[in-house]
Amino acid sequence: MADGPAPKRRREEAAAGPGAPFPLGSVRLRRVLRDSAREKAAFVHGQVPGPAGQPEDAVLILERTPFREEEIEELLRAHSKLELQTRNDIYSTYRLYPPPELSEIKATVVYPATEKHLQKYLHQEVHLIRETWEDYKNITLPFIQSQSFSIQWVYNILEKKAEADRIIHENPDPCNGFVLVPDFKWNQNQLEDLYLIALIQRRDVKSLRDLTAEHLPLLRNILQEGKEAIRKRFGVPGSQLRIYLHYQPSYYHLHVHFTALGYDAPGSCAERAHLLEDVLDNLLLDAGYYQKRALTFALRADEPLLKKFQEVGRV
Ligand code: M7G
């Protein structure tokens, strides 16, 4: 399950910027990891032939995109087929087949994918953990040091080796600076599901657990400059943004999520999201707040970290 650094070929591709598109047409479907009717998304394990012809794993996330207001009239007018399904009194339902240019599917590819990526998207039961500071030091920290997702993609953004043209705002200060980019989860076509992330320039802060009063200027910059940049670029005021950190994150390089308040973003639930303004207040009240209090998070049934907590009778 160890992920370690991204394979060399992947790093070179990423460093070189966008290369040839992933060969979606030659994917062999292995299994559907998760299929969410509510999110209108399928998470799929597929394989493509690697450089020596051997099958290599990929994760594909296929999502139906939200409607755009300016396209709705065209969608109703220019459909290629319309089938009446049922009619009852004043109610009726139809199958409407849109023309190809209005039936976009957002496809996100992780390739080559590790076993840990496959696990991340596999639907499983979840359990709540209440992690004390001692648990963090004795169980979680050694675990995340031994195995966590590669953060090469973060360094590529910070070093302008990838996504440089997507940067919305940058504060280059090595200690209190950050880069704001659209999150992979957002296709930028509509504001309803607006989603950006701020990645800090410094590389020594893994997560919420590392934060102390020393980081207040950095966090204030992210809050103020991030809100201002989003207002300027997208016209969305700070009062309509949900600005938060995840605990546990998937990637242990501190980052802050900015999502549209009206969007029920994955991971914005009470057991994972910590509002940035609350984090600031907590650190003002007590510089060592996050090295003292217990934090709650959910883990999927077969995650090795859950096993570690079970071994010492903490679950
Ligand atoms: P997280 O809290 O560490 O984990 O957030 P999560 O993925 O379980 O939410 C990391 C965020 O970075 C997520 O919102 C991802 O969608 C986003 N993300 C991940 N990758 C690999 C990339 C990337 O390469 N580029 C961009 N722009 N966003 C990414």
How would you concisely characterize the structure shown here?
Helices cover 26% and strands 29% of the residues. A hairpin with a 5-residue loop joins β2 and β3 (55-64). It has eight helices and 14 strands.
Low-confidence stretches are: 1-17
CATH superfamily of the largest domain: HIT-like
Order of helices and strands: HEEEHEEEHEHHEEEHEEEHEH
Helix content: 25-40%
The name of the CATH architecture of the largest domain is 2-Layer Sandwich
- Oligomeric form of this entry? single chain
Which ligands, by name, code or SMILES, are bound? 7N-methyl-8-hydroguanosine-5'-diphosphate
Number of helices: 8
What fold name goes in the CATH topology slot of the largest domain? Answer: HIT family, subunit A
Catalytic activity: a 5'-end (N(7)-methyl 5'-triphosphoguanosine)-ribonucleoside in mRNA + H2O = N(7)-methyl-GMP + a 5'-end diphospho-ribonucleoside in mRNA + 2 H(+)
Protein name: m7GpppX diphosphatase
Pfam families: DcpS, DcpS_C
EC number: 3.6.1.59
Structure, explained:
The chain has helices at 8-15, 69-77, 115-121, 133-146, 152-158, 216-234, 276-285, 304-311, and strands spanning 28-36, 41-49, 55-64, 81-88, 91-97, 105-110, 126-131, 169-171, 178-182, 195-200, 241-246, 255-260, 273-275, 295-300. With 315 residues, the chain is α+β, with helices and mostly antiparallel strands. The chain has 3 domains: 8-63, no CATH class; 69-100, no CATH class; 124-311, HIT-like (HIT family, subunit A), CATH 3.30.428. A 6-stranded antiparallel beta sheet has the order 8-9-10-12-11-13. The longest helix has 19 residues, at 216-234. The protein is globular. The model is unreliable at 1-17 (pLDDT under 50). 7N-methyl-8-hydroguanosine-5'-diphosphate (M7G) binds next to loops. 7N-methyl-8-hydroguanosine-5'-diphosphate (M7G) is lined by residues 153, 163, 181, 183-185, 197, 246, 249-251, 267.
